[in-house]
Write a structure and sequence with these properties.
- Belongs to the binding-protein-dependent transport system permease family.
- Keywords: Cell membrane, Membrane, Transmembrane, Transmembrane helix, Transport.
- It is found in: Cell membrane.
- A hairpin with a 2-residue loop joins strand 1 and strand 2.
- The chain folds into 2 domains: 63 residues; 214 residues, Orthogonal Bundle (MetI-like fold).
- It contains 15 helices and 2 strands.
- It is mostly helical.
- Strands 1-2 form a two-stranded antiparallel ribbon.
Length: 288
Amino acid sequence: MTSSLAVRYRRRHLLARCGLYFGAVLAAFLCAAPFLWSLVTAFKQNRDLYNPANNPFAFNRPATSDHVLYLFERTSFVTFAWNTLWVGLLVVAVTLLLGLPAAYALARLDRPWAGWFGVAIFLVYLVPPSLLFLSLSRLIVTLGLQDSTWSLVLIYPTITIPVSIWLLIGFLKTVPRDIEEQAMVDGYSRLGAFWRAVVPLTFPGIVAVVVFAFTLTASEFIYALAFVSPTTEKVLSTGVPTELVRGDVFFWQSLQAATVLVAIPIAIVFNLFLDRFVAGFTQGAVKG
């Protein structure tokens, strides 16, 4: 009897694990399907792509690299990618430099104006860019930054900083005050306690801000289109469409190749920090 129950339990356990793995694989495939479709499409021939009877996830005709080579040889994709990279890194640096101290002040310093000031900062993010770019364009012209990528470095933090402050406030409030107070008892100033005790524990929030600021910078379209016209100064969000969409002609495979080439490095970098991201949530407890 006992043996029969043990066999039944093992069978039920095996079926449960199989169901779990099947669900996980199915969910992973559904999430990865758009990327896989883009990857396959980038190497398809025109005759393969334009036949609606063909399987979109398979090569019904031999694969070709012509469309990927076209992206590098006949467009300024490398220039767009480089401009996007250095603009994104500078915007991330400015966002952290201004957003982290502001979030700390709102989360830690008990001031009567902290609540409504935080709401006012967030309301700035809610203003549509379509209403701001006309007035911001006057600022860019006054500073002589029109048709320069530096105009984006100046403008993008106005989008990234407000939301980043709110994200960081949430993480800073999860860090117990005891940690700061103990660091200050040990001889650190408030700034030293913030840098040495608080910042390491808010690493998940910092990673979230970095990912948010960089992806928003890489995907923003209105400001990049309004402020930058020369091909050598464009970023990916405007450079790729203007080079690969010409009237009613779409270089579809090259567009998908650009999507894949942009997504892969971001995914790799994020996964490199994934362990630190998860570990940050478990290192904020006060040990008794």
